[in-house]
Each structure stands twice: as C-alpha cells, then as structure tokens.
Specification:
Oligomer: homodimer
Number of strands of chain A: 10
Helix content of chain A: 10-25%
Structural class of chain A: alpha+beta
Radius of gyration of chain A: 18 Å
Chain lengths: 270, 270
Amino acid sequence: MAGTYKYRIEPRDIDATLRARIYSIGDIVLQAAGDDADMLGFGVRDLNSGVGSDGVNASWVLSRMAVDMSRLPSRHEEIAVYTWISDYGRLMTTRNTVVADSSGQQIGAAVTQWAMIDLDTRKALDLSALAGKSASLVDREPPIERPRRLGALSSECALERSHTVVYSDIDFNGHAGSMKYLEWIIDTLPAGVVAGIGNGDADGGGTDDGGGVRFDINYLHEARLGEQLTICVGSDADGDHLFEIRNSEGAAICRAIISAVGTAASIRHK
Amino acid sequence: MAGTYKYRIEPRDIDATLRARIYSIGDIVLQAAGDDADMLGFGVRDLNSGVGSDGVNASWVLSRMAVDMSRLPSRHEEIAVYTWISDYGRLMTTRNTVVADSSGQQIGAAVTQWAMIDLDTRKALDLSALAGKSASLVDREPPIERPRRLGALSSECALERSHTVVYSDIDFNGHAGSMKYLEWIIDTLPAGVVAGIGNGDADGGGTDDGGGVRFDINYLHEARLGEQLTICVGSDADGDHLFEIRNSEGAAICRAIISAVGTAASIRHK
C-alpha cells in the first residue's frame, strides 16, 4: 500500500530566492511519512497507545535520511508526495518517497530509515512483528541510493558554530526535531554557499552542477532542551560539505553531507 | 469581501505539549492575510510587479500585530481562518482575522496593521489609492482590541539573550520573517514560563488564568542577515512579559508583550 499526499509551498517554506528551503522539503517528506503511518495504523499516535508492539509505549525514531532534489519548488507551487515502505529489517524499516510537481514530473526523491524504540527504556524494538503486516509493504525499490552511513569527520573543522537547543527546536517527541539539525547546519554555512544549494552550484565550487542537491543525514543521539552543541563543517576530496554536530562532551550526535546531484551517492537517480 | 482559509495543524506546528506553538498560529494568520491579498489583487506578488501603486516596486510591511487565543489548537486539528480588511488609513491598513475550530467555534482572533513601502526607496507609500478599492473593505469592526503601541522598556532586562540573524530567519522579503522575532522572544523565556503560555498560566505566575494568551508586537526596524541582536525581557505591574529586541547599536527594532487573556488590552474579546 502506498499513499499520495499533496502540499502547497507556503511563504514560510521559502527563502529570499522564492524557492523552498531544503529542510522544508525534508519536513514535508517527514509529514507525509507520518500521515502514511497513521493511515496504515502504526503512526506515532497508535504506537504511543501500544498498537503494534504488545502494549509497549513505543515511537518511531528517524535513524538516517537522504533527500535528493533535481530542483527546489517555488512559492505557492503544488507538489505531490508519493510514499511507500519497501522493507522491514529486524531493527530498521525503509520508507521511500517520490516528490512530483503538479504535472506529475518527478522533481526529487527521499529515502528514510526508521527504528522503533520503547519510550520507557529508550531501547530499539524488534520489528519482526510489523514485517508480518505485509499489506503495508510495496515491492518497489528505493528511488535513490539509500542514505549513506557517515563516518567520523577526519579533518579539522574548517568552520564552527555553537548553538544552544531552544524551545523552537523541540518537537512533539520532546527533543530537537529531525530537520532542526539540518537547519543548524545550513545556518552555519556562509551565505554564498547556501545560495548555491539547489541553484546550480550545490557544492559552492562556483561551477554549474545541474541545479540539484542531495543531503544524507545520520542521527546518532537526540539533542535536548538547553544542550550546548557545536556544528563543525569539513569537506571531502570531491568538495562536498561534511558536517558533524557534537555535544558538550565532544561526542557526535549527528553527521551529514550535502552534495550536488550526480555524485556516486545518487547514481541510481540518474 | 472577506475570505475563509482552512489549515491543518501539522507536526511541525506543535510543541511537546502537542498543541500549536503561538508563533505557528501567527504564521497561519499571516499566510491567510497573504492569500487574501492575492485574491483581492494586491498581494506581494502583484505589488512587486507594480499593481496598485502606479508602477512602483512595492511591498506590504507588517507594522503591528495582536493575536489573542482562548486556546491553542492540537495536533492534526483543522482550523478555519476568516479574514477581512476593516479600514485604510493614509499610511496603514487594518486586517482582521477570526480563528475557528472545525465546529465553527471561535478559538481566537488577530488584528494586523500594514504599511506599504516602496522597495527601492524603503519609504512608506500613501494608501489613499487603495482606499478607493472599496470592494475590498468589510464594514465589521476588529474582533479584539487593535495591537497596542508599545513604548520603550522602562525597566532593566530581567533576562537577556543574544542572537545572530541566520539564513533560517530570513524570509522571502530578504529580512527576518515577522514571526521569527516572536520565536526569538519565546526562546529567551525559561521553559517553565513557556509551558504556561496558552495553558492556563500565560503570565507564568503559577495561577490559572483561563488558558488564553495574547501577544502584541510592534515592528520598528527590519533585521538583516548577520545582525547581532539582544533580546531583553522585562515585566510590568500586571506580571505580563515585556520584550524589546535591540540591534548592535542598542536601538529597539521590535517590542512585544505577552499576556493572559482578560487584560484590558483584550477586553473586547470577552
């Protein structure tokens, strides 16, 4: 079973270029994921009341995400988001998303990987029971390469910014919302680099790379209200931007990469 | 002429209490204002192309805003926003908004006051020409007291926080979005005070004040990317929270007050 959800790009989703912010697209992808899980009967609200996990007070936790856009939609543009689950592992399930414009043309895609945790013990739950709910599975491969597993930043921070987690960062789960990490990352980049994202120069190298952008993000630990974080920016040999968000003890809580479409990571999209 | 716009409270609109954030309601009110202005033919896009102001490259600028909610809607709740213009002054027009739940019960209201500026000279334009467009006017008084004109903070800052304006703060106008100022303000308050807003203890005094909340905000100067701001929190004799946002030269760029419903400022709502 798969669902299609429609959204309009609203003023608060766009930046000064009048195109959607990359993390607003991420929010729309996650919103569709939530709506679809609700429809299938195992959304956050169902899990909180014990459905699907033997009475355990459970919740979905986003573990990794990749979003790959060939272009960023414009102000008031109507987009359709098509989403389906392709597989359940023991500890992780894969949800796929295709983003289309109003003519049905694909303008982007996303893959998200989710774990289910017991909210009382904060431990991951076995998803084998859900795998039995085969009606929720669609036999269609992810539309882009799955989110990359990102290792520790090997280089020094070329750029660094500190951020204290505030009220507006905290979502319904009581910790920082998934797209807030990406927002902190983008807010750390120089304005000229941000302007190039999804605008023909995603890696900030000054050359036209086709207008697309892809990000991969790995979530390692949650960030809580009042936590002091450091956002560290590095780069790899391809000139892609690498990011690591560290807590006050120096431990990585999140890693990410932002790259122009056309890297190996998104080759299946081409 | 008046318009009605429907919205659903999405995951990104809510906080850990599962109710809408007060500035998300503000964003929805502003979104309806934009949609309605578009429908009437003098939205930001029309103005940018010279409609309604003799070929001048103009834009609406929010000058003052008051939002008064008797309760904050919950996750996935459908709300209807009804909006109309009640008057045009020479330099300012008044737009009114009523927020209703899905049963049609009023749960809040807002009044916004707008100036029109010439984007090239940044000077205010005379609205007399628009006043002639009488079809856009509705002979219905504002549903709550108009936004209060707030004077300089007379007390010392009881609480202070600095903020550098970043990419995520900047909206389609190229400066900080109107609701970002309120977000910075709320992010400055202690968690316990924020939790009481719209939740029976809007002034943080620890006593039940009926569950409502009202904010009044005055915009004095725009905030631009990279600006260093200070958010200063004071209070008045009623225990209401007063706020002033100052730029690096110490000049106030925004003033606001957050109060429990039932103060003199919102008496017409009762």
